[in-house]
Design brief:
Oligomer: single chain
Distance between the termini: 9 Å
Radius of gyration: 19 Å
Shape: globular
Largest sheet: 8 strands, mixed
Number of strands: 10
Length: about 280
């Protein structure tokens, strides 16, 4: 197949399964997707918001019990950081977005490595929103899972908004109260997008969960910013743009089933096989 377009309506299972192999190229796709997201956001932002990939954030650590400032500083990196210039402006609202499949209270005490304190993110400019594309190492069972949970909690306690994109169906979700597709639990979805809004505080905040299936387009989500501001981000559009870049269309072989095909449910295996027949008809 020479067409660079994604022939699936949603996440491409042939490429997605390949990328999740050790050495399958997830890091490169992850980086390309982040660049596409940042470009898409910067194209629609007013000039007082901007998105940067892999921005270093200086952290000032506080003691969890007494809250005195600890003098040591460290750096962490966000996949995408949305920041704002210190100017006044009229509120902006997101356009049309999809409805979340589930809304949860904010969770910062997920089991993993111990989270020892609260943090504040300080920059010459004001950090607003963090966007993360989850990697296999960040998910439960991954080598950096505990570190990711600590970074996640630090982000939320610092009052930043957090958007997490999880296309990794072969590992359980980050939130333990979501059914795990990797264990083929009842009601589980393979893909999730979590939008955590801390603007009313941790206790009153919420996490909107956008879950979707093998043949579902990824949703249009609101990206929360400062105050009441938000913008719409079409996740399927940025995914398709990233997919169309070489070498990704050249990596897939639609004449055979995706790698680790048994990691999909029986129903989803049937859906994929049917769609492979449609792809064969389109290319014959």
């Amino acid at each position: 197949m020479t067409d660079n377009k994604n022939p699936y309506p949603g996440i491409n299972p042939h490429l997605n399964s390949l990328l999740q192999h050790k050495g399958g190229g997830w890091h490169g796709f992850h980086t390309n997707l982040l660049v596409t997201i940042a470009d898409s956001l910067n194209a629609i932002f007013p000039d007082y918001y901007y998105a940067e990939v892999e921005t270093s954030l200086q952290i000032l650590t506080y003691d969890v019990d007494t809250l005195p400032l600890i003098a040591n500083q460290k750096n962490t990196t966000a996949d995408i950081l949305v920041s704002k210039k210190p100017v006044s402006h009229q509120p902006i609202a997101a356009g049309e977005t999809h409805t979340p499949t589930l809304t949860l209270p904010i969770m910062t005490d997920i089991e993993g490595e111990e989270i020892s304190g609260l943090v504040i993110y300080t920059k010459p400019r004001q950090a607003i929103t963090r966007i993360e594309v989850l990697s296999p190492a960040n998910k439960p069972g991954g080598s950096h899972y505990g570190q990711y949970l600590q970074k996640r909690a630090e982000t939320l306690y610092a009052g930043l908004q957090l958007v997490e994109l999880d296309f990794l169906h072969e590992r359980p979700p980050v939130l333990p109260n979501l059914a795990a597709y990797s264990r083929q639990e009842t009601g589980a979805f393979p893909y999730h997008i979590l939008v955590t809004d801390t603007r009313s505080g941790i206790a009153q905040g919420k996490t909107d969960v956008y879950s979707f299936g093998i043949m579902d387009p990824a949703p249009i989500i609101p990206v929360p910013l400062e105050g009441s501001d938000s913008v719409s981000l079409d996740i399927q559009a940025v995914y398709n743009t990233t997919f169309s870049k070489r070498p990704y269309p050249d990596k897939v072989n639609y004449t055979r089933t995706p790698d680790n095909f048994d990691r999909y449910t029986e129903l989803d295996r049937q859906l994929i096989i049917r769609h492979m027949a449609k792809i064969a008809e389109m290319t014959s």
